[in-house]
């Protein structure tokens, strides 16, 4: 009777119920993502600052483009909102990414035409609560479109009073920056987060809701 060697262990091992458990790399990625969310919770809410506020440069076309590139990254709620889209598991990534980009630019255009929406910063922070509830299946995914439009609205407030040329390059910088972040969120990061267990996804959603609620309260009372 010939004996056969046991098969090598699969990285995605089976638990006692026969279900595949996450591989070590997936578990590590989930831990890192949750740690990032925790650190974001400790950070202050985003302020309406951009590179020109920080550096004191004049609004030239080049400086406007650089400011547009950097602005979504400088605000933790803007950055976290864009990256959190990787957890939602959107289908048809290309179409959704285009729709989200158009929504963001439409919000920026509206902000230039009709600025001064009361409580806009608090509403932007609350959009993180919306993402968390979408992730939990409580709210429908299309609500992310007006949410990103609201982000675009707030991002346009810092260029009120600029001339046409730097405003145009600023909006183009926003398009490039948000497009890059959305591409990472809806493609690269989504591939890494699809293997997260339901428990970790729930924890991530709870962290998003916690961040959004804390920053919304800060925006209302600040």
Task: Summarize the structure in words.
This protein has 222 residues and is mostly helical. The protein has a domain of 141 residues. The protein has nine helices and no strands. Helix 3 runs parallel beside helix 8, helix 4 runs parallel beside helix 6 and helix 6 packs antiparallel against helix 9.
What is Rg? 20 Å
SS class: mainly alpha
User: Tally the helices: what do you get?
Assistant: 9
* Total E-strand runs: 0
What is the approximate shape?
A: globular
Ends apart, CA distance between termini: 78 Å
Output the helix-strand order: HHHHHHHHH
Proportion of β residues? Answer: under 5%
Give the biggest sheet: none
Helical proportion, percent range: 55-70%
Which ranges are low-confidence, i.e. pLDDT below 50, for 5 or more consecutive residues?
A: 4-24, 45-49
Mean pLDDT: 77
SSE map:
Elements (H helix, E strand, L loop, with lengths): L23 H19 L8 H5 L5 H14 L1 H13 L4 H21 L6 H16 L8 H13 L7 H30 L4 H24 L1
Helix pairs in contact: 1-9, 3-8, 4-6, 4-8, 5-7, 5-8, 6-7, 6-9
Describe the structure concisely for a colleague.
The chain is mainly α. It has helices spanning 24-42, 51-55, 61-74, 76-88, 93-113, 120-135, 144-156, 164-193, 198-221.
